[in-house]
Amino acid sequence: MLNRLALKIGLLFLGFIILIESVLFLTLYITFVNERVDEVMTNLLARGNTHSEVLAGSFEPATLEHVALMESASDFIVIITDAAGNELIHSDSIEPEMNAVLEHTDFDEIVHEGEIVEERWNEKEFIATDSPVTIDGEHRGHVFMFAGTNQIQQMVSHLRNQFLAAGLMALGLTIITIFLLSRFITLPLIRMKKATEQLKSGNNKVKLNIERNDELGELAFAITTLSSDLDRLRNERNEFLADIAHELRTPLTYIKGYADIASRPTASDEEKAQYITIIREETAHLTELIRQLFELAQLDHNQFEIQKEEFSLNVLFQSVVALVRPAFDEKKIELSIRCDPAIIAFIDPERFQQVLLNILDNARKHSPEGTRVTLAGGGDEQRTWIRVSDEGEGIPEKDIPFIFERLYRVDKSRSRQFGGSGLGLAIAKEIVESHDGQITLESEQGQGTTVRIELKRGESDEESSVD
Ligand SMILES: Nc1ncnc2c1ncn2[C@@H]1O[C@H](COP(=O)(O)OP(=O)(O)OP(=O)(O)O)[C@@H](O)[C@H]1O
Ligand SMILES: [Mg+2]
């Protein structure tokens, strides 16, 4: 079945091509016919002129007879008259139409050159020319030449038939070409439509075998890429959900277990207090996990309003350090700031404070006593950078590529001990990226870790530099 799009394209093309073909064929046909008719007329006139020239040399009965005799053997008819229009001789039998031509000739008017006197080939039986015979400037007679029009008509109808046949052939070929062409254009489109329908109904593994280098090929490629992206996203989502379920189940199992033990009549008050402390800790961990998940979800939906402003990096560092200092002191880790007070970044300070808190929290958790953590910042015309480096345990090389993924932790069991859920760096990355910035991590096991954030110079800086 011809599909609707193919039909539409086909009909549109067909309409245009028929129009163009008709105009072309008609023009060609008219030109052809006119040229052929002109040729016949010119020949007839030339023949009449030749006779009149011969007669101008000798306007004798013998010559007249000779001319008449010659034409009686030809397809043409000649009538020779004197200057007053009286017939002197004729070659074949005279038809009434020929007399009409003679009657309509104004013999008082002196013509000097041969002319066509009847050219209506499609109405009359004959076309006619009139060539005057002039001897020494004196007008002596007329040579009327006649040619039957049926020959012309035959030729024209033959030509018409040929044109019709050619036209029909062209039309047939056009229809076939358009049919093939429209299928060629629409078939891939229909396959792509089916593929997107499959995508909609949940089948994410569509494969389009459309090997083309044009826009349709690009579209097919885009659909295939989209389908695999969608597939990947769905898998990621499922994995993520499974991970979250796991994350939530573990503390809940603890809570339930300890609550059960604590409610046993045999449990001493001391034991009860201990279990309740564990339950508290686990509940706090759960609350934190849920808060972070919620934050990530908001970041994902761009519901997090980023309110950028020009903010001194040094001031930001100071406020973050003031918050974390007690925890660092407790673990005897030295925390220092290296930043030129003049450095201004175009950021949302609250969000960035959170980024730094997450990174510093990691540095503290994974550094032994007596080491140093440095918070450094700087910038030039194009960018602003922040660097947090520690001298801690570092991260194995194989884990580094996944470190910013949600719920990813190097050592799950140990990380739990610190209360980590593997969301801190994922949140930091989302926030940095929503600032159009980049966050990277370098680490060497046993040596330490450095997290680097790079931001382009903000819009407001650009604006002020334009001014
Ligand atoms: N400075 C660091 N030194 C060593 N390991 C690190 C460092 N920073 C991050 N990591 C490793 O990367 C993992 C992911 O860090 P991330 O901050 O995303 O999660 P988390 O700290 O485990 O949990 P959360 O931050 O959500 O409380 C950590 O579990 C840890 O194994
Ligand atoms: Mg963390």
From TrEMBL:
<dbReference type="Pfam" id="PF00672">
    <property type="entry name" value="HAMP"/>
</dbReference>
<feature type="domain" description="Histidine kinase">
    <location>
        <begin position="243"/>
        <end position="459"/>
    </location>
</feature>
<dbReference type="GO" id="GO:0005524">
    <property type="term" value="F:ATP binding"/>
</dbReference>
<keyword id="KW-0597">Phosphoprotein</keyword>
<keyword id="KW-1003">Cell membrane</keyword>
<dbReference type="InterPro" id="IPR003594">
    <property type="entry name" value="HATPase_dom"/>
</dbReference>
<feature type="transmembrane region" description="Helical">
    <location>
        <begin position="163"/>
        <end position="185"/>
    </location>
</feature>
<keyword id="KW-0902">Two-component regulatory system</keyword>
<dbReference type="InterPro" id="IPR004358">
    <property type="entry name" value="Sig_transdc_His_kin-like_C"/>
</dbReference>
<keyword id="KW-0472">Membrane</keyword>
<keyword id="KW-0547">Nucleotide-binding</keyword>
<feature type="transmembrane region" description="Helical">
    <location>
        <begin position="12"/>
        <end position="32"/>
    </location>
</feature>
<dbReference type="InterPro" id="IPR003660">
    <property type="entry name" value="HAMP_dom"/>
</dbReference>
<dbReference type="Pfam" id="PF00512">
    <property type="entry name" value="HisKA"/>
</dbReference>
<keyword id="KW-0067">ATP-binding</keyword>
<dbReference type="InterPro" id="IPR005467">
    <property type="entry name" value="His_kinase_dom"/>
</dbReference>
<protein>
    <recommendedName>
        <fullName>histidine kinase</fullName>
        <ecNumber>2.7.13.3</ecNumber>
    </recommendedName>
</protein>
<feature type="domain" description="HAMP">
    <location>
        <begin position="183"/>
        <end position="235"/>
    </location>
</feature>
<keyword id="KW-0418">Kinase</keyword>
<keyword id="KW-0808">Transferase</keyword>
<dbReference type="InterPro" id="IPR003661">
    <property type="entry name" value="HisK_dim/P_dom"/>
</dbReference>
<dbReference type="InterPro" id="IPR036097">
    <property type="entry name" value="HisK_dim/P_sf"/>
</dbReference>
<dbReference type="InterPro" id="IPR036890">
    <property type="entry name" value="HATPase_C_sf"/>
</dbReference>
<feature type="region of interest" description="Disordered">
    <location>
        <begin position="444"/>
        <end position="467"/>
    </location>
</feature>
<dbReference type="InterPro" id="IPR050351">
    <property type="entry name" value="BphY/WalK/GraS-like"/>
</dbReference>
<keyword id="KW-1133">Transmembrane helix</keyword>
<dbReference type="Pfam" id="PF02518">
    <property type="entry name" value="HATPase_c"/>
</dbReference>
<keyword id="KW-0812">Transmembrane</keyword>
